[in-house]
Amino acid sequence: xxxWKLWLLLGSSGFLAFFxxxxxxxxxxxxxxxxxxxxxxxxSASERRTPIKAxxxxxxxxxxxxxxxxxPETRRWSNQHGAFENGYAGYCELWxxxxxxxxxxxxxxxxxxxxxxxxxxxxxxxxxxxxxIFSGVIPGTGKVYENDHRSGAxxxxxxxxxxxxxxxxxxxxxxxSQVPYxxxxxVWISIYGYGGWSKx
Length: 200
Known about the structure:
This protein is of the alpha+beta class. 40% of the residues lie in helices and 10% in strands.
């Protein structure tokens, strides 16, 4: 009887150890997935351009195959069920990647929104519906949005302030991992500035 109890105890301990190993491996995989989502890539010297020179000239609300793929995926969230409050606080770049991935579109992975915008943003022309919109210079101030220099607002990879990125969803609104989830583009730019747009 004692041998059976000892075997059961060792067997359960073995199972518990195996279960904990699975959990630790899954957690490690999740961390790796998060890193992979950002691409871990910094903007190279040739890609790095300051987002200061972008000029907001309006939007293009034309429905395209691109926008018809992106916009439905942004409807997974709302002002009542925002991305910021549901796992994406501080992860605007990851949220945008998730939306584009659900839409079946390529997404350039960078270490942070600032590096992404510095390397990829178009500085001219209207923002297409479904495109990424990057933080930059706040109109009338000449000041670049810098996350208020809060702790954690700097990218651990490139050392720059992380910036912000969201998606223009049409009708003058921007959706993103921010509060509120949907903001008018004028309000968004007045808070985060404007550093251009990109479709990847």
